[in-house]
Design a protein that fits this description.
The structure is a homodimer of 389-residue chains. Chain A has 389 residues and is of the alpha/beta class. Chain A is built from 12 helices and 14 strands.
Chain lengths: 389, 389
């Protein structure tokens, strides 16, 4: 979810070369896309990127799902001037874990996002202006149902692996439960099969920050001033939860922004950790729509793969895919202890599940900033799939 | 810091009877109170309450320090109609750990607070209107320096114990370092000797929530609309950090506010955990001044007992008091591992320090809601002091 990744991958090799965003649109007035809540969208667009080629059997696909504020840009660069590669670049490419000489990696943008997917900033054809708050509530399952349309459109028969961190992992779970026959393996990293109270609580605080901004104007700010301070505060709150106490102590401690500042003299004096939070907030403002933030966090709250199946157990029993759960030792959003319990629950339900814990002080953000640590378990998972063919 | 306590103690026995707030005011234009940052206040008032009586030696005193949004109301009730007793009522009273037949318990309100202490809502005599943001930045040490004036005024010669949770514990530390000869023992509960980056980060988010509220008007809202939504959001953020993932799961899980609500249909649909956060936010608005929240959280950020002594080690070496550190197993604000390390550091510096960990799922709030669990170690500490007389 954080921005650290992109920074971490500045200056990496250029194996993935230049990549392009592609777009897929479906639906019509006559045949709209009906959401889980029975509301509908007459037209849905999703952005996606593809790295590698589809094989003759059309089944060598790895689907990479992004987190809360991510985009379809998982690997490569858009231009040689662009110093930053996609968010998952360390794992994707020729000879890497998601070997593009062998696999076709597909990375979509999630519904309700603002990086090429239909969302609250999109024009509502009926009204001739952006949806804003008239955009329907969507769920993680709806995101996955849109991706299924994309996968069908691309002629893909089967997914070898659906992988993602945080909200990306929620989508991986929904894939395995909603389309069990389509998926050979999933790897939810620092994620969950249904969202807990603490996550909902943080999400609600972040939403309140946005709606508190006088520029939010009940979501009708398009064309005017954007509720930048509100979104920035939401991101500041999020940023704390993506890190951990030890890493914050290591990165910032009690360092002042400016050694010459007498910290006791002004309410606005700044510790370095405050500067960092403000910078993270301002960076997100440049690339994310505040209304999308409201909708995507609500989709996360509503995430519960058991919905419609009666119980979590019943939902787990639908899963045919192998499951590799990855937890991060210092994660305060997705406690590794809970992920370990989920693994036990999955196995009791007959799922071929395994759990791996990444030793990192980076907290939740480790799924982005220390993705190399996930290479070995992912490699092993893909090898198992090949043996099983 | 939370409100859970007061609820938890509804209907407790009435041993402490009716209590009264008292006030102590000092300073003048000619002899102002000079703060750590060299700014000054011409007049300082502190509210305080006293339970029990001072002995002939004037040294049987236990000083009880409150947390961020607390007040001087540590025990008893203000009227028989009032169902709620003070925040530390379970530990204070005849026959209790802080036995008022033996000890004289003094509970002050911290400087910059708004429950009877001079703070940003007080009238600036020079301007004839509330200080607002012209109120000087104060520190935890300043709070303690004001208390020292109160203690001198009351004719108290020595403090047997200074005890408090969270910000209260920071004050206990400052007492032991600033007035080492005055203090026989301190017990900082779920607290620290200097504030870490994560706490500063949460504090900054809470302050941003207040200043984002259009009603805040750079702190000049007195007499007009109060920035209630901003303060409420600050409290909502705080509330998450005062609890823990396990207790939130136990208290709320994914329970909806209203079983008949179709959660998928509205952005404003509410989970029970959201309702709780909003209620906590609204409750604080009724009893706390938003500007005080800004100043008191900044005082917490600036807390560092080493200031002026060169190093933490040098500050620790000043301490003559016995130190009992209490950590809470599930606390996400004050990691018990860090408190244990602090104990080791104190002992290396020659301090008679000990560490006790409370097994509780309540997180940081346990220092209020499960104060009974602290009775035994506090009793043992007081017994040691008596033996040592």
């Amino acid at each position: 979810m954080g921005d650290l990744t992109m920074e971490a991958h500045e200056g990496v090799d250029e194996e993935n070369g230049l990549v392009e965003i592609q777009y897929f649109t479906f639906g019509s007035e006559a045949e709209p896309f009906v959401l889980e809540n029975q509301q509908s969208l007459p037209s849905v667009t999703t952005a996606y990127e593809v790295y590698g080629s589809l094989n003759a059997e059309r089944d060598n696909v790895i689907l990479v799902e992004h987190g809360l504020t991510g985009s379809s840009h998982a690997a490569g660069r858009y231009s040689w001037e662009n110093r930053r590669a996609g968010y998952c670049n360390a794992l994707i490419g020729p000879g890497r874990v998601f070997d593009t000489d062998k696999y076709c990696v597909v990375a979509p943008n999630a519904l309700a996002g603002c990086r090429g997917a239909t969302g609250p900033a999109s024009i509502d054809p009926a009204a001739g202006k952006p949806y804003g708050l008239t955009f329907p509530i969507v769920t993680i399952r709806d995101m996955v149902r849109v991706q299924k349309r994309l996968i069908d459109h691309l002629g893909i028969r089967r997914l070898q692996l659906v992988v993602g961190g945080s909200m990306g992992g929620m989508q991986a779970f929904e894939w395995a439960v909603t389309y069990p026959e389509m998926v050979r393996a999933i790897c939810p990293i620092a994620s969950c099969s249904r969202t807990g109270a603490q996550s909902i609580a943080f999400n609600e605080c972040m939403r309140r920050a946005i709606v508190l901004d006088p520029d939010w104007r009940k979501g009708e700010y398009y064309g005017g001033a954007v509720p930048a301070s509100g979104l920035a505060l939401a991101r500041m709150i999020g940023t704390i939860t993506y890190l951990s106490d030890p890493i914050m102590e290591q990165m910032f401690g009690r360092k002042p922004v400016d050694e010459t500042t007498s910290l006791e003299h002004s309410l606005h004096a700044r510790f370095d950790v405050e500067r960092y939070l403000h910078e993270e907030g301002e960076k997100l403002v440049k690339r994310f729509d505040p209304n999308s933030y409201l909708y995507v966090t609500r989709a996360i709250d509503l995430h519960d793969i058991s919905r419609g199946y009666g119980s979590l157990d019943a939902a787990y029993r639908r899963i045919q895919a192998r499951v590799l759960l990855i937890g991060i030792r210092s994660d305060i959003l997705f406690d590794p202890k809970q992920i370990r319990l989920m693994d036990e629950h999955l196995r009791r339900a007959g799922v071929q599940s395994a759990y791996t814990e990444i030793d990192s002080d980076y907290g939740h953000d480790a799924f982005l900033v220390e993705q190399e640590k996930m290479a070995a378990p992912l490699q092993a998972l893909l090898a198992t799939l090949q043996e099983a063919v």
